[in-house]
Amino acid sequence: MQTAGAVRALVLAGGGAKGSYQVGVWHALQELDWHPSIITGASVGTLNGCMFAIGKIKEAEALWRSLEIHDVLDVPATRNPEELNNFFLDVIRSGGLNVEPLAERIDSLVDEEAVRRSPIHFGLVMTEMSTMRSIQCPIEDIPQGKLKEYLLASSACFPALRPREIDGVKYIDGGWRDNMPLQLAANMGATELLGVDIDGIGIVRQNNTGLPTRIVRSHWNLGPTLDFDPARAARNIALGYLDTMRLFGRLGGTAYGILPDDDEFLERFADIYQRLLSETNTRAPGIDRVEKAARQRAGYPAPYAPNPSAPTRGALVPLELACERLHVPEDLPYTPKLLAAAFMGSFDKDPASRFPALLYGKEGSLVAERAMAAAVPEEFVTALVSRALAEISPL
Prior knowledge:
The protein has 395 residues and is α/β, with parallel strands linked by helices. The chain has 17 helices and ten strands.
């Protein structure tokens, strides 16, 4: 909820092709009735921010859903390794790729006067190449008619892209010195900050604003920085939406977007999972540490941390981890039961069959199975989840 009298700022980090994620964030914010008075950005965040500020969300989404690398950078169409190698050697010698295709896109999409008139106050950062100093640029400090040049300067990810010269001074990507310009938003009058981190190249400075701050970021890899691909963009837009809804408490989960649902299924799953883990730990003392290692390696929290308002939500952790292991699609919302069904439908050979001695007490080599579990702990958790779900019939 917004604090009374708060001035909200949306801060859009840089990250090249991963910027499609920010479109999904914007969709969620509109649905949540969370409207910023200020938008600041670095690199691709400046381009998205401009379009958001002037209400061109449909155009922004259409752009990302169709954008390919040739629409952004002047690169050859060939896939011949030798030709590509020679091309990139020439790029290095010449000081970076030509971004004229991107400049043409900006001309067609960004209306400078509309940005200046927008009720959303816009600002960007770029980096002075000779001093590597971060330059903060609220829209009123950008000379009339120069917004496109400043956008291209903020997006010039050197050495892959050429520096941009403005009035005799060369500038490069704003993200090199400040990829999440929270301080600029604070300087422009914000009292509440929402950052969107897309894991871009550069420095994310420590937040010293002292302002209430939330950060949207994804559990998932959003893809390479310069790999502009419509299919990946569509997936990232969906992830941006789901992650924002989770941050605002409308969805649960860590990696997957989990819809509110009856806790009965999770209670049954949690009880069975914990019982099976305990039984397995009796057969192979210390196997519970393997389960913990799996969660830590994959970036999941402890599954049964106290949460009085939702005591069974922690049961999602091993289920989500197992779904990630078996590549259950991450860009869709699920109820816990639907996620479990998607998991059970994602394999031909039951993962639990790899651990007959550990999970079923059958004949086999506990030593070998424990060694295998320790080597690939995510595989062990996946097997344990499968074993637990098999006892819940039907899902």
